[in-house]
Request: fold
Amino acid sequence: MTMTDSIPLQAITFDLDDTLWDNHGVMVATETGHYAWLDEALHEWMTGEGRSATQRFAERFPLESFEQHRRALARAHPLRRGDFTWLRERALREMLGEYGIDPAAAEQWAGAAMERFMALRHRVEPHPEVEALLTALGRHYRLASITNGNVEIARLPLGRHFSIAIAAGEMLAPKPDPRPFLAALARLGVAPNRALHVGDSWREDVEPARRLGMQVAWISPHIDDTPLPAGIHRLDHVREIPALLRRLGQKAPQ
Reply:
């Protein structure tokens, strides 16, 4: 598409994890942090209740066991495979039951552990350029987020920039399913060819958005310069969005 025949864009949709922030460190701290909290709090509770166990919870069920349990649940409940919050809480409840905790207490402890998980999960640090970038883009375009993760964007300061937030896993339609994109476009009131999607995953962001007819900004540093199909634009970083918009003949922050 050239600058002379470009269709004016009206909206930009964003993936979140590893697009607006680096997610690996956040997830490591969240995973280990909430599990360690549960192990310690459960041990203190059981000691206070005068109960004893031959093994502490995290000894009986190491973190790797928790991961295996979640994967098994995802296989057993394929419609829930992308609903990570549900999978985590259900796995914790079942493991606590196996540990000897009665169902009511297991439900309470699993819920408390997930509250701790979500508190840690939202300790993300957006790239330094993101706040100003979204502010500037919001003057020209409608903005939406589409994520497979369980970050609730409304809990972050960045949430004020997004009039629409799509949690694909909770829709039971995780990307690359097209339904999260279609839901965002419908709520934005924008046709696919009037929207740009920004994301880091070829499978979960690029392919489904392109099939719908959206332009795509693929955040993928350290990839060679192999030519890409029309409508896909590889960027090293989200900060390059304004330059891309100018190349496409679109309104762009200065």
